[in-house]
Structures
1.
Amino acid sequence: MKIPGLCVLPAFCIGIIIAALHPASGRFAVLCATGLFLIAFALWRYRLYIPSFVVVLTGWTALGFLALIVQQHTRPNNLASQLVETKAIDSSFPMRWRGILRENPETLPWGTRFDVDLQSVQVSGEQINVSGGLRATYFGEDVARAETFRAGDSVELLAQAHLPRNFKNSGAFDTRAELARQNIQLTASLRSLELVNQISGPPPTIRHRLARLRAILLNRVDTLFADVPQQAAVLHAMLLGDRNFIDNEVSDAFTKTSSYHVLVIAGLHVAALAAFVVWICRRLHMGRLASSATSLCALIAYLAIVQDRPPILRATLMAAAYLLGRAFYRRLDILQAASLGAFLILFFRADEISDPSFQFSFLAIGVIGGIALPWLDRTAEPLRNSLHQVGDVTRDRNFTPRLVQLRLDMRAVSVSLANMLPGWLHRRAPSITAAPVRAAVLIGETFVISAVIQIGLTPLLVDDFHRVAIVGLFANIPAVLLTGIIVPLGFAALGLSFLSEAIGRALARITGGAVFLLLKVITWFAGSRSVNFRVPGFPMWLLLIFCAALFLLAAGARRHLRTLQRLAAGMVAACVALIAIHPFTPQIPRSQLELTVLDVGQGDSLFLTTPDGHTMLIDGGGGTGPIKIHGVRTRFDVGEEVVSRYLWSRGLKQLDAVALTHAHEDHLEGLFAVLQNFRVAELWVGHDVASSNYQRLLQVARERGTKIMHLEAGNTFTWGAVHGTVLWPNTDSEVRSATNDDSLVLRVEYGTQSVLLAGDIEKPVERALVDQGLPIASAFLKVPHHGSSTSSTSPFLTQVHPVYAAISVGENNPFNHPTAATLERLRASGAQIFRTDHDGAITLTTDGNSEQVRTFAQTVPPFIARLYGSLLR
């Protein structure tokens, strides 16, 4: 029965994937599934068991196909995102949105956030029914008004809502899909909290009252840990899933050590809470059935309080299966339970298969149940059992001679120890003697499980985070052990503080000490740079080989086949080494010059490759306004999440040059991540600037071994058949502050074709380039200063005479770039205009004689992107 159970889930998943890639009617899927099951039954009646089994699995594939189709067809037609995408609602101006607060307004380091379950929107005086979620954020310190709202309140917001911003480059993080999994279809910024008003509506539901309880618990954490806000922020995350106040340095440390799962409430936290409740029940001498029921009730209450967070739901399902099995004296097969839990989730929410957290959760459970536990059952479990009740001689016959000898040695040591202990501890001497050995066994088991998880999750970690953290093998041991202490103690402190403030604060001090130790340990491990490095993505064939090797290793471990285990372990090790080393050739077109203007919002970042394989990044994008408030990043790290991900998607680990046109944040900020994530040979700059961020960038370059080169007009470079010339600035002297007219202007030639990269220059420099008669004529122009009215003058465009003009500009930017006048001048010059806010990444390729321009919006997305898009439609 075990093998069929494990086969059903993969068959069901294959059906979901097929439905995502090749949609068909639900009627077709129903007919296929029914027919296949009838055929299977007929084959079984004729005792053709193997063909019957194959046909049954095919039937389950058809059911998986049907599950996704049903889910997609049951989505409401008035979903807010669909209405905006189809222009049924014009999102270009503010509208009045009505709905019910999903939770109490969440306090952020920079303001307040409202998550609203939408009901209607007012358009031209008419109320239109809508569904879905709206996330509205107020940026400001005056948040007193927000405290008057609570979950379940009916509210009306006046805001300009829009679809979540996705950067249209290969490899970019899919923010829209991530928010859609949280049922957030639209986002908005609030200029004032006066734009949010409470209106009459239905009374709050149980779900909303539980959300209010969660807010009360979060406030109680702040009260108990008022003197140590960093510990309070960590407990917000570990106990109740609120990561809003986690300092960026702390978050980065957990990420670098592959222990970020500690900050995301999931299986580890549920297991710790369940184990704590079971322990309490044992101390109260409750029976198995009663203790299992009590633990299950506690987990259900926890799930209700933290609301609809899929990792908690998955972990609770697994824990429930374990507790029910325990209540009836059944030993749970973890793989069977995981398969059942995954099947139940996918049956009702088929698109969960595209959720990275779903993939992480069940792959982790799979390698634990398939590899780690079989190994430990044959090694550590007998040793652990032999260390219980060491003083009981009658138990010796249950163990092997070697373990019996260990027990004899432990008893001998305990006799000597008893003579040194007070009389009331004499009877405890055997247990005290065995305690250090039992702790060592526990640490060893934790290391084995951690190592198996780290190795098994390597492809997902690299695909999602592009990070290989060897240090995670060791950092996760104290992280997991301390989490097992922090979670139950934290909830005990919270619960008892409502009964006795003194007891609550006493437990809070102990919990705070454990959190302090956790932060110290993780920070120490994160400081080891040599065992944490970034790598590009890997080819699909390597993933398939890795999965096959992992399956063979699990089969060998569960069936005690040593030869198969050795062979499979070697295959797994080889795959991990290839993923980590990444010896694969970057995706760079040979015999062609390629220039890509990346979509980085309101900023600049361009990537250039030459026919002989040289690579250069010009600018790294960035943002406006403060990067951090109270140690927490207020906005997207474009260099990490957009530019670096694009470069990794091209298979790059190093760059020959990075050029900074000028030291404005929308060009400079993203280069910090690039310098840290890639081996950069040279950093090209123009004017030195006295600003702190620019000086810090130079310092990072020096620390990373990057050569800094100052360029000015007249400098040239030659990479094979490609020749580049610096046209501006006319001096590399230091300036007090950066200006647009300090920009590096580069002209790159290949054969008869050329591109002009104009940075953010404005009218004075454009006039100077024209008056000096410099060779600026180019088929491709990176339009200066995002298409502002102060650039792209008619004389300049006449001299350049571009065939293609690419504008790097942010969607709905507050500067109204590009201006109508600039667009008109570009059209008058005869150029074909491309914009990153509309077209995404813009790529020019030329063989030196002819050129071609394509955009991200025009290209067919790769397999995984197409799959995810289909699942989340």
Note: The longest strand covers residues 111-123.
2.
Amino acid sequence: MTLVFFATFFLSLLFSFVLTRHVRDVASRRGWVAHPSHERHLHASPLPRLGGVAIFISFSLSVAAAAVMGSYLPHLHWAFSLKILLTILAPASIVFLLGVYDDLYTVGPYVKFAVQSLAATMLFIGGLRILNIPVLFGEHQLPWFVGLPLTILWVLAITNAFNLIDGLDGLAAGSALFSTLVAFVVALLNGYSLVTMLSIALAGAILGFLRYNFNPATIFLGDSGSLFIGFLLSALALAGAQKAPTIVAVAIPVVSFGLPILETALSILRRLIGGRPVFTADREHIHHKLLQHGFTHRQVVIVLYGVSAVFALLSLFLLWPTGSSLGLVLAVLGTGIWIGVQRLGYIELGELARVAQRTFEQRQIVINNLAIRRATEELKAARDYEQIRRVLEAAFGSNDFDGFEVRFKLFPGEPYPAADPGLQPRRAEASLHWGKSKGSRSLEGLAVWTLSLDLVNSSNRHRGALVVHRLYSQRNLQIDINLLTTGFPVALADALDRTLQHGVQVIPHPGHDDQGFVAAQAG
């Protein structure tokens, strides 16, 4: 048996090594090349992108050779169930042809999903399906109308995940090689000879292709390769799950496909947060981020090979599932993914973290918001400067602002607000100041930012402006700024109108030991 596996691998490797060069040369002569027409493209010159043709033919020839060997070796004949083989290879061939057409003429995403869904349905009809989800439903077998959508979703996710990471020379093929080796080991240990044979044949085809695809590449994998490999691996995972223990069937494929799944999840999440279409192409993939951090093309690929290898090794730990091993794998995965994603510096995830932080700070935000709402209501009843002063100090004294200034106009006939009724201003303006700094009457010379709000009363007459100050700080502003910009300025302007129209001229002068201060002065 082992000899047959090795023979299949080396045949596939040899076929791929020879055919890739031939496909590359033919594609170049016929002009079937990918031009660097988009800014996300990282190659400088046109290169053929039909590498999947060499992989598909090499894989098919080596599997055919293994089937012939099985026919002459009676103890292997049982392993090659023609029904299961056709169940896998027929839809895989359809997906491969879809990829070839896309490489030559371009196909829209919805057409791709439709064809891939048809291929996934063929797997389901052939018996390769998701039977249950132990984490959610225990050992209860799912009805077909639940299992079919889940099977299609699984196939679509894995197929397109490998297509999504195909952005650097050798990246998708190398990552797929690690996942294929995991499928081979799991099938071998579980005694599933057909999946073992298909996995080792695919591994040989990918390895032979990598000779020409590793940086600097002379041929690309193309959709014909990435879609075929992704679909075949998703099908092999379903086939292997039929004879594997529950945890092996569910967890190992997910972990072994860790890099493409992570890339897909991040891409969808980024685009949803950013309000962009999910199918929009960009230069924000993991490999692009590593390039932006100063890594060379080859270094990025090697780093991501290492990541793929770690995912593969961690998945193999689950071959012996215990409470401690499962917990250890999940802990290592979670910690590694968290640290890695943080280091990549996605601004969308930074915004998500800000929202999460605001959730933890929500209690203080509610308190500060209520202070502004309460001040707005109290200003509606204020009749003198002392009341206005108390209301404003209460509103701003407990939140994250460090000071304010109310600048207001005096219209003809309105008295100047001063402690001495005989004091008259030289200009028809006055102001009211307050600051948190002890003993300070000004924020001058300090690094502050300001927010200026026009005070327009209910009659649409401009009374002045409210200017709030805040020292620059790493601490977030824990208040809904909309509360300050809507009803609050109108309420303050109306309160000033009532005070000036009633001719009230009382304004206290706090002592030097007070935390804040209030002063009325000529403008």
Note: Confidence is low (pLDDT under 50) at residues 419-426, 504-523.
